[in-house]
Amino acid sequence: MSGLSFHPAGPADGFAEGSITHLEIEGREIGLYLVGGTFYAIGDICTHMRARLSDGYLTGTVIECPLHFGRFDITTGKAVSAPCKADVAAYPVRIANGMVEVGLDSPETA
Ligand code: FES
Prior knowledge:
By secondary structure, the chain is an all-beta fold. The chain is about 0% helix and about 50% strand. A hairpin with a 5-residue loop joins strand 7 and strand 8. The mean pLDDT is about 95. The structure holds FE2/S2 (inorganic) cluster (FES). The site of FE2/S2 (inorganic) cluster (FES) has 10 residues, from loops.
């Protein structure tokens, strides 16, 4: 059985529109984005050669890797241009009591 656990990323009013924030939560590297008033969280390590996507360039809801310019859709984690083929994870984001929280699968042994 597995469940989702939410982890605080910071106060919701502490992020600027268009901001990109690198997070490390439970050993996972995650990029948190605020675009059009909505937060998105995706895996932050490029599936091509492991560059950090949060060091890249955001255009709308597409992040371009700083190393070889592959691109990912931040709303889904989907790789949308070469040389990237494999998607990165997409994580649910919620706001609870004014805090941005990122949801991670937490495997449980039942
Ligand atoms: S490391 Fe990201 S495109 Fe090559």
